[in-house]
Structures are given as C-alpha cells and as structure tokens.
Amino acid sequence: TILFLMLIFNIQLIAQTNNNNNNFDITKTYLSQIQEAVDYAPNTMNQKINKLKHVIEQGKHQRNILEKQLQKTKSEKEQREIIRDFNFILQSVIILKTDIQKNFPVSSEINYLNRNIPLLLKKL
Prior knowledge:
This protein is mostly helical. It contains 4 helices and no strands.
C-alpha cells in the first residue's frame, strides 16, 4: 500500500513538473516568435508590420499565462521582475512596429530586443 501511494505521489509530482515546464515552454516559444518577427527581413514593409502585429496581438494572452505560471513557481520579487521585463519587451515590439510604419530609425529597438529577449528566456 505504501509503495502504491508513493508511486501515485511521484506520478503527480512528475505531472505537475511537466505542466510547469510546459507553461514556461509556451512563453519561451512566444518570446522566440517575437525574436523571429524582429529578425524577419521580408520583401515588403507590410509583411514585417503584419508579423509584428501578430505577436503583439498574442501578447496579452501570453502575459496572462506567464503570470499564472509565475505565481506557482517564483517568489513575488521574481514575478514582478519577469513581468516587468516581459512588458518592456512587448512595449518595445509595439514601438518597433510604429517606427517602421513611420519610417523612423529602428536600430535601438532591435538592439534592445536582441539583448533582452535572451535574458528573459534565461530567467524562465
């Protein structure tokens, strides 16, 4: 009986761990999509804008997933830092899209995103 209970407990623990990793995997995949959109070199400006729009539209949903997952696995301080970093990245993508639409220089936003997306991925 004890062996059976331990087996059930281990199965539940493994399932919870896999679920936690899967939720962070979703966020990591989303951040990778942002990186791809930033690095995307299309034939037309509208293609780049549409790709950025797509990741921006997903941002709120992805932030909700991330917030729920962080509550389960990180301290309150870590939660605030990660959400702040996530929000800054999303804001930078919005600024990048706007700058492209208005033909402003975009190198500072691209540099920010290329530097900070990998940092956030490491925190997760």
